[in-house]
Amino acid sequence: MSESNGLNMEKSGFESTQEFFDMWLNTYKASMGKLVEMPAIGPAREKSEKMTKGFSTFVNLYAAGMDTSSNLQRVFMEAMRKVQEKTATDMDGKISPEKYKEFYNIWMETYSETFKKFMKSGHFASDMGKLNSHLIDFQKYNREMLEDNYLKPMDLPTKTEIDEINKELYSLKKTVKELTSQIKELKNKK
Amino acid sequence: MNGLNLIDDFDKFKYGMELFLKPPEFSVGTTPSEIIYTEDKMRLLHYIPTVEKPHPVPILIVYALVNRYYILDLQPDKSIIKKLLGEGFDVYVIDWGYPSGVDRYLTLDDYVNGYINNAVDKIREQSRLDKITLLGVCQGGTFSVMYAALYPEKLKNLVTLVAPVDFDTDNGILHIWAKSLDVDKIVDYYGIVPGDFLNSGFLLLDPFRLMIDKYVGMFERIECKPNDTACQVRNEDYIKNFLRMEKWIFDSPDQAGETFRQFMKDCYQKNLLIKNEMKLNGKKINLKNITMPLLNVMAEFDHLVPNDASKPLYDAVSSSDKETLVFPTGHIGIFVGSKSQKEVCPEIAAWLKPRSLLNGNGKTGSGNEKKPGSAREEKIESGNEEKTESAKEKINEQNRKNRRSRVDKK
Q1: Do A108 and B212 touch (CB under 8 A)?
Q2: Which position among A39, A50, B98, B338 has the lowest Cβ density within 10 Å, counted as fewest Cβ atoms?
Q3: Are residues B320 and B241 in the same domain?
Q4: Last residue of a domain, one of B250, B270, B301
């Protein structure tokens, strides 16, 4: 898709939303963000520092989500514009209940092709990569909080502990398989 | 479609909903089989042969870790497995099962040098043959290529079906997305990578068609006048087929994290396999070690594994007997589309038959030195019964040539 068609998939758009959000993010970083990054002190410093750092994780996810969302809106707008153009030419601009199927086909074809093109762009891949990365940071933080503040004090097994056991189990099973195979080979040699 | 109005379509929708309220029973993977080997979650299935005397060299099918193997046996009239059995082959399939937390540390080495190798050994032991045919599908095809490079002495033939080996292409969306994924972060967090996470990626390939139009299309197909029994039977069959496919699409096992990590990083991100730089358990995989006959099958309109990703296998191997076939269908169509039963399976069977024979002393031979012609000549020497077999082969060969016009052959 070229600029002349109204949209370049490789460039970010929906400028006003993006500008507003950037402004919000910069203000946050200059004010609240600094407070959150302050080192904690006192007997509960470890816990409170972990908890406040989680806020940054959430803000990063929110920022990535906004970025992705504004880019998706841009593609929706572009698809909508194309649908309008096509209905004007292919359906003489007349949309009636009798012709809704024709309209549906134009809508589906246009949205599908526009989005497929966007999904194939490096821009989308990079957006999704970032969003996914921040989402995992956030989920990881939540899990740590759950483990530290609920599961451990209640003496319940945590995912981290189960993973340790799984690793040990895997290693033991592998050793058993190797030894079994060696025994079989030795038996065959005899 | 044109000329229909909203009321007509609403009636269709209403009728479709009525059908869904009493959904027909359906099943998948119904071709009879027995489990002959299990290891952890993996099961090795042996399909009951449907001919009295199957071709001597058995086929082991290795499917991907994404979704389930039964796409190859979705329903009786759309079953690659049933078709191969009908063509006289002895067929085995690896079912990877559903990995859980305990499997998160399984590596690619465990899959290739462990599960696949043990399955191959089990079949060799059961069939009393030194070599078998490996048929790898999609990611299972990539695994099979790795295996063939590491254990060429155990394979008589290698068939790859829509299998990626060269990942450095921008023609497939998955190849583009994979480069931007922080694989370490995903695996470290999830451990076992959720099937739903992977499936959401597949839905994003064409979100509007896959999440809206597919279902609209389904209701559109359902249309019967009252008391039209034949039409109602057709509808029921259609819904059964739709539900089978729907089940397969969303039956997505989770994946062992460490395997996912190495596959994504070494293959999709660094493209080490085709460069002969990939290692399993410290051992380099050299595709030049592949010397057995190779059939590389692709789908021309494959949106998941573009032809660019599969074609380079032809030049990467040392096999002197090798062939590439491209069918005008898609990644899923090659298994369940109309061409699958009529063209894909018969072509694979025709290629395999002369290469699935034993030599005079009951061995499978060294593989790469045999040409289809020479294999047939060898059989003629061994008895009258096999002469009939040879005559059949000639007919198959002729059929193959006739079909060739519809298949783009390298």
Answers
A1: yes
A2: A39
A3: no
A4: B250
B166 and B221 in a single domain? The answer is no
Q: What are the structure tokens assigned to A163, written together?
A: 């993973």
Q: Are residues B167 and B87 in the same domain?
A: yes
Beta-carbon separation of A108 and B208 below 8 A: yes
**B209–A112: do the CB atoms touch at under 8 Å?**
yes
What domain range includes position B163? 33-191+254-409
- Whether residues B13 and B98 fall in one domain: no
pLDDT tens digits in sequence order for chain B, 410 residues long: 444 566 677 777 777 777 777 778 899 999 999 999 999 999 999 999 999 999 999 999 999 999 999 999 999 999 999 999 999 999 999 999 999 999 999 999 999 999 999 999 999 999 999 999 999 999 999 999 999 999 999 999 999 999 999 999 988 889 999 999 999 999 999 999 999 999 998 999 899 999 999 998 888 877 777 677 888 888 888 889 999 999 999 999 999 999 999 999 999 999 999 999 999 999 999 999 999 999 999 999 999 999 999 999 999 999 999 999 999 999 999 999 989 999 999 999 999 999 998 876 667 764 443 333 333 223 323 333 343 444 445 444 544 554 443 444 44
CA–CA distance, B277 with B284 (Å, rounded to integer): 6
ipTM of the complex: 0.81
Buried b (16+ CB within 10 A) or exposed e, B230-252: eebeebeeebbbbbbbeebbeeb
Considering the domain architecture, whether residues B232 and B272 belong to the same structural domain is answered as no
- Give Cβ neighbours of residue B250 (< 8 Å, ≥ 6 apart): B199
Q: Distance from B125 to chain A by nearest Cα, in Å?
A: 13
Three-state SS at B295: strand
DSSP one-letter code for B281: T
Last residue of a domain, one of B229, B250, B271: B250
CB contact under 8 A, A163 and B9: no
What is the spatial distance between Cα A43 and Cα B242, in angstroms, rounded to a whole number? Answer: 61
Same structural domain, B166 and B243: no
Cβ neighbours around A51 below 10 Å, total: 16
Tell me how far CA of residue B288 lies from CA of B107, B270, B366, in angstroms.
24, 19, 16
Pick from B151, B157, B90: nearest CA to B118: B151
A→B interface, C-beta within 8 Å: 97-102, 104-105, 108, 111-112, 115-116, 119-120, 122, 125-126, 128-129, 132-133, 136-137, 139-140, 162-163, 166-167, 169-171, 173-174, 177
Interface test with B, best of A120, A126, A143 (most B CBs within 10 A): A120
Chain B closest-CA separation from residue A20 CA (Å): 27
Backbone angles phi, psi at B156, to 5 degrees: -85, -45
Does B176 lie at the interface with A, CB-CB under 8 angstroms? yes
What does pTM read for this prediction? 0.84
B4 vs A: CB within 8 A: yes
CA triplet A96, A99, A105: central angle to 5 degrees?
Answer: 125
Total beta-carbon pairs less than 8 A apart between chain A and chain B? 81
